[in-house]
Amino acid sequence: MHATLDDLSTVPLDDVLDDVERRLGRQLKREDGHFSKYNGTAGFRTDAATWVRLAWRRTEKIDTQAWTGFEAAAVIEGVPRPEWSAAAVWTDPGHGVVWRADEMTLVEDGALSPTGDITTDPGLPEQWWSDLRTALTNLSVHSTDRVAMGQAHLNRRIHEVYGTDIDTTITDWACAHGDLGYANLCGPRLSIIDWESWGMGPVGWDEACLWSASLTVPTLAEQVEALFSTILSTRSGKLSRLLLCANVERAFQRTGRKAPLTDTMANVAASLLRDLR
Q1: DSSP character for 32?
Q2: DSSP assignment of 76-122
Q3: Contact criterion met (CB below 8 Å) for 58 and 69
Q4: Which of 55, 174, 214, 237 would be a feasible disulfide site paired with 221, CB 3.0-4.6 Å?
Q5: pTM above 0.85?
Q6: How many whole angstroms separate alpha carbon 15 and alpha carbon 124?
Q7: For residue 4, what pLDDT band results from cuts at 50, 70 and 90?
């Protein structure tokens, strides 16, 4: 049963949604539900013009940081995002999981892509890009003990792929969203959604993630590089990009199959390695 819960649109969900409505005191517009095909989440408008996000974890594998990301983000200032208001959490022995339903304000402007990557330039207005830069600047100075990307993971992944002769020590840290791709960016009015992963990371981590997500559309990647050139050219920005290159190269080494960006990332990595060594 666990495996099929990865896409909630494929399983009978009425009993779970009944629980959501009873616990939050809202009626869900079930016919307009949005379902992820990969991470076991779903979202619904409510009769109160709010949004409810439903997620699950296996009872023995609850990651407290990710589980409480939305409510923890309520204290962040200067970043356009849904305002969290309530949550319901309950155990479901039948499915072997714990459910969590978070209620928040509704973002009318949709996500820019159904996945973290993007296939066409969305033609965003200059104001959107200006607002994004301001939002990431404001987010970067927020103080938290949460971790989005830690030193140990960065060390391990880069050294595994490119060898241990690279100094991967990060000296500059900042608060980050942690999963800044086009599935979590809304437009044409900016809103940043899905705050499960936020916390401290290398300076430039969010900007590097957005750069990586943009590479399938060269004009978009150039726009991201130009807008965030100062941050991406720092040592921590370069190490952040190298980590993302390592992820792509690692997948190629494990499967033997090239992805659309395998060669592109290999070329970027070669340039970054020359700089970092």
Answers
A1: G
A2: --S---PPEEEEEEEEETTTTEEEEEEEEE---SPBS-SSSS-SS--
A3: no
A4: 214
A5: yes
A6: 40
A7: confident
